[in-house]
Specification:
Elements lengths: L2 E5 L4 H12 L3 E6 L6 E2 L8 H4 L4 E4 L13 H19 L6 E7 L21 H20 L3 E6 L2 E2 L8 H11 L3 E4 L5 E6 H13 L5 E5 L3 E4 H12 L5 E4 L14 H7 L7 H16 L1
Parallel strand pairs: 1-2, 1-4, 2-3, 4-5, 5-6, 6-10, 7-9, 8-12
Antiparallel strand pairs: 9-11
Helix pairs in contact: 1-6, 3-4, 5-7, 5-9, 7-9
The protein binds nicotinamide-adenine-dinucleotide (NAD) and uridine-5'-diphosphate-glucuronic acid.
Length: 292
Amino acid sequence: MARFLVTGAAGFIGSHLVEALRAAGHDVIGVDRRPGADVVGDLLTLDLAPLLDGVEYVVHLAGQPGVRESWSQFPAYLAGNLQTTQRLLESLRDRPLKKFILASTSSVYGEAPMPAREDGPAMPVSPYGLTKLAAEKLCDLYGRTAGIPWVALRYFTVYGPRQRPDMAFSRWFNAALDGEPIQIYGDGSQLRDFTYVADAVTATQRAALNPVVGVPINVGGGSAVTVREAIRLIAAITGRPIRIRQLPPAPGDMRETRADTERLWREVGFRPSTPLEEGLWQQYRWHLAQRA
Ligand code: NAD
Ligand code: UGA
């Protein structure tokens, strides 16, 4: 059994990861600036040294997520995605760490050809994607100069119970349950490689404990569908008629995300496999329970 520090532990992916690690018998300290973690504080100011004593694995999920807001709130993305990462890496110097795992994103790919490969181009089309790509480069820098063993997991649009309220499926389930129209950016032909949260968590645990180090790894590949196809499934699951309100395409949104998962399979021995319909049912039941 190992000792983990999980940042962003009160967040969507973080809360699932902490539960799964504890269920597997690991010793976990969760940190977040929001209530719901063992240690509540801001990574930009917290005294990190006492938190890192005896820690073997750091999973750095804390950050500023969301693609579309990153144009107008760039300082928050710099602080959340770059400064927190730099501060953690600097505090990890000369410690006997087994691995630092960075939460990266499919958004680093931008205009790269799909299915996206980790050894292919990364051409972000949003400031969000750019700050995460820079955070990956920081890991590489500290890996080469300070010997810190790292891996960056490029998660592809994660969904499931407790999904962030700003993300598409949360907004659409809530709109359907409230009888409001669903808003789509553009014509809904954009494609996403939606990844169920339990699959993202399994990949994260295994990437920590397997020997792989010093590379980014795609975590996606479960269900690549268009926004319109996903909305059809949501209509069938909720059993409600859905009205669609089309908005202009959102600046920074990728046309398509599709993960090449060869590296994930080879290095981590796992591939996301939860069918979209099954994962959407789980998320729908969670929204219903929230309203009960
Ligand atoms: P989330 O917002 O639910 O969780 C992130 C958590 O980090 C929040 O609870 C927030 O309070 C915390 N946090 C942010 N800045 C902090 C700071 N300075 N100090 C302490 N805590 C801080 O987001 P999520 O969807 O769970 O995403 C987790 C990570 O994975 C993020 O880094 C995100 O960019 C990345 N990611 C998410 C997805 C996705 O589809 N959800 C996809 C790719 C990458
Ligand atoms: C998501 C997360 O928000 C990012 O934090 C993460 O890094 C990113 O995945 C990633 O994989 O890199 P996004 O794909 O935009 O970003 O996720 P959603 O908010 O679930 O949007 C999915 C699709 O639905 C996008 O094409 C978006 O344009 C569309 N959408 C979203 C709408 O049409 N309407 C909405 O109300 C919301």
